[in-house]
UniProtKB/TrEMBL annotation:
Residues 1-433 form the BCAS3 WD40 domain. The gene is Bcas3. PANTHER family: BCAS3 MICROTUBULE ASSOCIATED CELL MIGRATION FACTOR, BREAST CARCINOMA AMPLIFIED SEQUENCE 3. Its main location: cytoplasm. Residues 369-410, 597-616, 652-680 are annotated as: Disordered. SUPFAM superfamilies: WD40 repeat-like (SSF50978). This is BCAS3 microtubule associated cell migration factor. It is found in: Cytoplasm, Cytoskeleton; Nucleus; Preautophagosomal structure. Interacts with histone H3, ESR1, KAT2B and PELP1; the interactions occur in a estrogen-dependent manner. Interacts with beta-tubulin and VIM. Interacts (via C-terminal) with PHAF1; the interaction is requrired for the association with the phagophore.
Length: 688
């Protein structure tokens, strides 16, 4: 179903296959002169894992079938011996998730690229949680290998030594954590070398190799070697980006942000979710740094996470639990406390405001921390605490300060690591169980302002029955995604749609779909905390949410299926063709069906011949004056600059530019110091 910007939902493709465990439309692969797409004329492709595979003989859910949405034929089938849990795909690879295993296939040829067999057995609902970014793949490793461990990882109460982790794992399994126990009993193995007495004790109690929960490994799908990916003491770290402890409990769900630099992980308890920033090193994973930027605190009750979604600008993250509740958290891609300045503007702001950059606050804080008192701070709130504003609280350590004064921004992978921020959800959105009735209508039902119920066009029928596996134990499956508002046009159909209409929304709309087929668009409106006495840049946020429109994307058994082959003007094919065309252009290849290589020389020459060069020169000389406004404060007016007078005594001779002290020779020929203040911090080249 595409949702047009006008709000209409149109059914494009539907097929009844019996129970389907996973289905994905595969994105167009990345191509180059060396790597061409073997299935170009068949795309778009749909990957499906269903209970009865194409061969019919294999056990249920054990094969991935790739169907062409252009021709309707099955172009490839990949068989496995064990059930498939999930499919993930990006422009480079197709990832098939199995029990404790991951298999990755090339997106152009669907040949096997690499596989991982050391995943931690998660109790569910997601049996083997992974996260696939545009290039990196993260999964839960079943042990911590010290020689590959990255700097950082989970901090706060969650950090533990390797031994303590093993012992706590042994205790939990002994005390009857049956869900892990069932799976672990099948595993036998040997101890890692150099085991301590406690580990041997734990091992003798368990009679098997201890699995360590909560460890995350991130691999680079481009540079990783073909075949099995093994993280062990003997293996080299080719392709391993990071390897770190993220939780004490088994990991339940994880996701990368759109840029692939932030990773959100959740454990089986579901109290706290962790946001990590991954800073890589080209040499090895042990040199990489993992900054624990945020702990997103959901609550004290236990809940299983089923879905994590980021906004496109990475300032909002939505985590949905199996109770059907979606929790909306504000974050910054660079860490720090979310506040009015960072989250009330339509665009992402820099970590430090223009005022903070030019006001010399680091130096003021430095004086305040080194000699309590000193010069009074011009910024209220700073004189009382060294890190009054959370956004530059990170910059007040001596090392960072020295780096700034030496014009060296510092290495983010080295200490000190940024401080951890605990964030509470600004909104908790509960998806209603039923929404109106199932009709053939394609437009949205519109909500009034803040109204939660829908006026059903006719008598309400009971909600459609869903498969028992989805509804066992009060579980309620939902998924969330951010996108441009589709209800605006339907609400204001009489008005002319303005070009800058989207600018009035600070946050994109949040779309939540439930397993009953109801899709609801929620409008999120962040605002300053209403109880705050005075609104400033650092004021905390609160958020108002209201459902704006809903679509019932449920089919009745009487409806016809829409199966390929499709016409050439079908929206799915038009979209696939457009993407494919630009993929060829990006790779510098000639797109199929185009007349020839596109050249721009003729148009350039015709432009050049029309204009005389003189006008261009006059215009160029004005550019800098016209397009650059003056700074809001001259650099030297900031308090970090000091002007001092140099008092020479006698005749001065500079010994060498690298000398730390300048000296002069007086009449008595005894050396005297030339300057009346410390010269170590002067750049003497500029004094020549």
């Amino acid at each position: 179903w595409p949702l047009q910007i006008s709000g209409e939902a149109q059914e494009l493709f539907s097929v009844r296959h019996g129970p389907v465990r996973a289905a994905r439309i595969l994105p167009a692969p990345q191509i180059s002169a060396q790597k061409c797409d073997n299935f170009a004329e068949k795309r778009p492709l749909l990957g499906v894992c269903k209970s009865i595979g194409s061969s019919g003989t294999s056990p249920p859910y054990c094969c991935v079938d790739l169907y062409s949405l252009r021709t309707g034929e099955m172009v490839k089938s990949i068989q496995f011996k064990t059930p498939i849990y999930d499919l993930h795909c990006n422009k480079r690879i197709l990832v098939v998730v199995l029990q404790e295993k991951i298999a990755a296939f090339d997106s152009c040829t669907f040949t096997k690229k690499f596989f991982v067999t050391s995943c931690y057995p998660c109790p569910g609902p997601n049996m083997n949680p992974i996260a696939l970014g545009s290039r990196w793949l993260a999964y839960a490793e079943n042990k911590l290998i010290r020689c590959h461990q990255s700097r950082g990882g989970a901090c706060g109460d969650n950090i533990q030594s390797y031994t303590a982790t093993v012992i706590s794992a042994a205790k939990t399994i002994k005390t009857g954590l049956t869900m892990v126990g069932k799976v672990v009993t099948q595993l036998t193995g040997t101890l890692p070398s150099g085991a301590t007495e406690e580990e041997i004790l734990a091992h003798s109690n368990l009679r098997r190799s201890p699995l360590v929960p909560g460890i995350v490994t991130i691999i680079d799908t481009e540079t990783v070697a073909e075949g099995q990916v093994l993280v062990s003491e003997d293996s080299d770290s080719d392709g391993i980006v990071a390897h770190f402890p993220a939780h004490e409990k088994p990991i339940c769900c994880m996701a990368f942000n759109p840029s692939g630099m932030l990773l959100v992980t959740t454990d089986t308890l579901g109290h706290d979710f962790h946001v990590f920033q991954i800073l890589t090193h080209p040499w090895s994973s042990s040199q990489s740094a993992v900054h624990h930027l945020y702990t997103l605190h959901r609550g004290e009750t236990e809940a299983k996470v089923q879905d994590i979604s980021f906004s496109h600008d990475c300032r909002w993250v939505v985590v949905s639990t199996l109770r059907g509740t979606s929790h909306v958290f504000p974050i910054n891609p660079y860490g720090g406390q979310p506040c009015v300045r960072t989250h009330m503007s339509p665009r992402v702001v820099n970590r430090m405001s223009r005022f903070q950059k030019s006001a010399g606050l680091e130096e003021i804080e430095q004086e305040l921390t080194s000699k309590q008192g000193g010069r009074c701070s011009p910024v209220p709130g700073l004189s009382s605490s060294p890190s009054g504003s959370p956004l530059h609280g990170k910059l007040n350590s001596q090392d960072t300060y020295n780096n700034f004064t030496n014009n060296n921004p510092g290495n983010p992978r080295l200490l000190p690591l940024p401080s951890l921020t605990v964030v509470l959800p600004l909104a908790q959105i509960k998806q209603p169980m039923t929404l109106g009735t199932i009709t053939k209508r394609t437009g949205p039902y519109l909500f009034g302002a803040g109204c939660f119920s829908i006026k059903a066009p006719c008598k309400s029928k009971p909600a459609p029955q869903i498969s028992p596996s989805k509804s066992v134990g009060g579980e309620f499956c939902v998924a969330a995604v951010f996108g441009a508002s589709r209800s605006w046009f339907a609400n204001n159909s009489g008005l002319k749609r303005e070009k800058d209409q989207s600018k009035q929304f600070v946050v994109e709309s949040l779309y939540i779909i439930s397993c009953y087929g109801s899709l609801v668009e929620h409008v999120l409106e962040p605002r300053p905390l209403s109880t705050a006495p005075k609104i400033s840049d650092d004021t905390p946020l609160e958020m108002g949410t209201c459902p704006r429109a809903s679509w019932t994307l449920v089919r009745t058994p009487q409806w016809n299926e829409l199966q390929p082959p499709f016409n050439a003007n079908h929206p799915l094919l038009l979209a696939a063709d457009a993407v494919q065309y630009y993929q060829y252009l990006l790779a510098g290849l000639v797109p199929p069906g185009s007349p020839g290589p596109i050249t721009r020389h003729e148009s350039y020459d015709s432009l050049a011949s029309d204009h005389s060069g003189q006008e261009d020169e006059e215009w160029l000389s004005q550019v800098e004056i016209v397009t650059h406004t003056g700074p809001h404060r001259r650099l030297w007016m900031g308090p970090q600059f000091q002007f001092k007078t140099i008092h020479p005594s006698g005749q001065t001779t500079v010994i060498s530019s690298s000398s730390s002290v300048l000296q002069s020779h007086g009449p008595s020929d005894t050396p005297q110091p030339l300057l009346d203040f410390d010269t170590d911090d002067l750049d003497l080249n500029s004094l020549r």
